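One record is kept unedited as follows:
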Amino acid sequence: MLYNKLLALVALPTALALPSLVPRDCDYTCGHNCYSSSEVAAAQSAGYQMHASGQTLGHSHYPHKYNNYEGFDFPVPGTYYEWPILSSGRTYTGGAPGADRVVFNSDDALAGLITHNGARGNNFVACT
């Protein structure tokens, strides 16, 4: 009995340090990256707050206007803005933005997710 309690105490920190084995909700897929609706909402909120305050982050000054050169048929009207969504689940705070973006409009409505993965040059393709 004492052995089992000691084993549990030794194993607990190791188990807590391991990534969750529970699969993530995959409401959106950008290349090999999976995002839950809550992760998308958090990224959108961060991007919109920066837009509303007139602030930007990173070398590319996110959020910035997204011109939709690819001609996506978004479900909300423009003007559109893009903000990085990170595969780590963390909120973008500057630096390398990765390939994936959340796109929202000036009314803070989600337009969609897009990615550079699978696109030619600096273009985007739609996430699913």
Remarks:
- DSSP finds two helices and seven strands in the chain.
- Residues 25-93+107-126 form a domain with the Nuclear Transport Factor 2; Chain: A, fold (CATH 3.10.450.30).
